[in-house]
Write a structure and sequence with these properties.
19% of the residues are buried. This protein is α+β, with helices and mostly antiparallel strands. It is 33% helix and 31% strand. The chain starts with a helix and ends with a strand. It has helices at 2-25, 31-36, 40-50, 72-79, 151-155; strands at 54-59, 62-68, 83-90, 94-98, 112-113, 117-121, 125-129, 133-134, 140-145, 160-165.
Amino acid sequence: MKKIILMLMLMLAGCAIHQKEEAEKKPMENEENVTENTTEDEKEIHDMEEKELKLQLTVNGKTYEVSMVDNESSKALMERLPMTLHMSPLNGNEKYYYLDESLPTEPFVPSSIHTGDLMLFGSDCIVLFYDDFTTSYSYTPLGHLKDAGDLAEVVGSGSVEVDFER
């Protein structure tokens, strides 16, 4: 198993080097042209791609910074912000909320879940994990809360309102 993981890491490192070399060969795009030739929606998407995807998540008065995964699911979620979700408890390790509309998905089965993981279950269920555990379920990763060591205490045992904003 360790050999497979090491081999995958080496392959990914090689891909990253190749992508960097290819990117260096391409001329830099003039920021002014991007601004002049795009609609307002395209400008917002361009701006989102230019900076790291982040949002603020507030639970019971405590605010956490969330580093979002750069995928279509996270981008679609961020387009809906700000929003407040009334999240319900499940399994003693997560809070969840079913959205009215689906988000794009890129599911995979993580070997383990970590405190502070923000995931999408199916196409419409936002899940905030506040305890580490192993899983066999499929999720689309959305992001991870920074400094979430106290999250279990903050979310408590019942339902909780969670504010999501940029």
